Amino acid sequence: MKIIVILPFFCIILPLVFGDLKVGFYESSCPEAESIVKKAVQNRFNRDKTITAALLRLHFHDCAVRGCDASILINSTTSNTAEKDSGTNDDVRGFDLIDKVKESLESACPSTVSCADIITLATRSAVALSGGPKYEVPTGRRDGLVSDVREVNIPGPTSPVSIISEFFNRNLGLTTQEMVTLFGAHTVGVAHCSFFADRLSTPDPTMDPALNTKLVKLCSSRDDDPSTPLDQNTSLLVDNKFYQQILAKKGVLQIDQQLALDKGTKGFVTDFASNGAKFQKSFANAMVKMGSVDVLVGSQGEIRKKCSVFNTRN
Q: Is 67 part of any known ligand binding site?
């Protein structure tokens, strides 16, 4: 039996100008830019629905270090170990899709569209394809000139809510509510056993017993570090079911479950769990705000010709 989930059409209207970024930045310089990105993401999504989770993680891990400047895309060299090779970024993927989009854009509009904007536009398209909100993305970012593995200090899934909330506020300028909103991206994510095995060694009272039994069986298999959806219900849809799951003690990661228990975040979780439309609108706004963190604009940075390497400079 097939279960068909029909989601309403969400169209979020945002300001045309956001800081130094602007909706429609490439209208004159590269009119087909956004459609080229959208087509490439659609083609990948048709083959692999998990690309949405990959792009959301890639986007966040880029913005969380030096701001949204595509520094995560840079390859390491003999003289520099880049962000991409941090242990934190071991499972980050989607690089090949960004590279493919960049090649197409370079053919259409050489040295015009930044890799940072490609990440943002690609993520926006993937979110919409997965049933999430459709929203405008301000563009005009330029690519960074630094990528240093030593600067990657993103808190892990066992960090307490207070530490992660402080990180979001200090590094991204986001409120606790916006942090909880962006954790909604876990609705399409997965986690490997190594990230939550400590919750299984002795039964965690904050985890649903049935889920505990399921995960113990999964992690006892012969597979090398198997994974499971963070949303055990609608794992390929950007919806509010993740919040309903963690309220029911079905959070896989410790941090996810703590969001539903911590007094500073539980109210937001409960609100989003009961109001899907509010989550969709809040998610779109939080994605736009995060995507505008510490961006390089104007004459700052560069427009890379290839996303994985800095341009050659004299």
A: yes
Reference 307, options 51, 44, 62; nearest CA is: 62
50 and 91 Cβ atoms separated by less than 8 Å: no
The verdict on whether 61 is a catalytic residue reads yes
The 3-state DSSP class for residue 12 equals strand
Domain parsing of the chain, residue ranges: 16-153, 161-286
91 is in an annotated binding site: no
CB 298 within 8 A of CB 20: yes
What are the CA-CA distances from residue 94 to residues 113, 122, 217, 252, 302 (Å)? 18, 10, 30, 23, 22
Residue 239 in marked binding region: yes
Domain 161-286 sits in CATH at: 1.10.420.10
Secondary structure (3-state) at 132: coil
Buried b (16+ CB within 10 A) or exposed e, 88-127: bbeebebbebbeebbebbbeebeeebbbbbbbbbbbbbbb
* Mean pLDDT score of the chain: 93
20 known member of a binding site: no
3-state secondary structure at position 299: coil
Q: Write out pLDDT tens, residues 179-227.
A: 999 999 999 999 999 999 999 988 899 999 999 999 999 999 877 899 9
The arithmetic mean of pLDDT across residues 252-262, rounded, is 97
Domain 16-153 is in which class?
A: mainly alpha
- Marked catalytic residue, from 57, 59, 61, 250: 61
21-23, strands of its sheet edge to edge: 17-18, 21-23, 138-139
